[in-house]
């Protein structure tokens, strides 16, 4: 391929996706762990929602702090 300018964009998009997936899975995992330990069903939903919110915050911060090529 002659033009390899799409590689940085691919890595940037992959980073955004990983931020979302990891934060949601961490929230879900922590919620499931606490629910299993405490024999409840409340923490899974709570930490899943917090993971989703945290993922959006992480993506927003990454987008706003990354300088794009002009």
Fold and architecture overview:
By secondary structure, this protein is an all-alpha fold. It is built from two helices and no strands. The chain has helices at 6-38, 42-65. Helix 1 packs antiparallel against helix 2 (42-65). The longest helix has 33 residues, at 6-38. The protein is elongated, with a radius of gyration of 17 Å.
Main features:
single chain, 70 residues, mainly alpha, 2 helices, 81% helix
How would you briefly describe this protein structure?
With about 70 residues, the protein is mainly α. It has a domain at about 15-65. The protein is built from two helices and no strands.
| Arithmetic mean pLDDT | 88
Per DSSP, the total helix count is 2
Instruction: Report the biggest beta sheet as strand number plus sense, adding barrel if it closes.
Output: none
Instruction: Please tell me how large the radius of gyration is.
Output: 17 Å
How do the helices and strands follow one another from N- to C-terminus? HH
Spans where pLDDT lies below 50 across 5 or more residues? none
Structural class: mainly alpha
Report helical residue fraction: over 70%
What gap, in angstroms, lies between the N and C termini?
22 Å
- Write down the overall geometry: elongated
How many DSSP E strands? 0
Report strand %. under 5%
């Amino acid at each position: 391929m002659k033009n390899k300018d799409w590689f940085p964009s691919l890595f940037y998009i992959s980073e955004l996706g990983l931020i979302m997936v990891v934060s949601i899975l961490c929230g879900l995992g922590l919620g499931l762990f606490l629910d299993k330990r405490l024999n409840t069903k409340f923490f899974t939903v709570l930490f899943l929602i917090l993971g989703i919110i945290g993922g959006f915050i992480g993506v927003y911060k990454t987008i706003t702090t990354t300088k794009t090529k002009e």
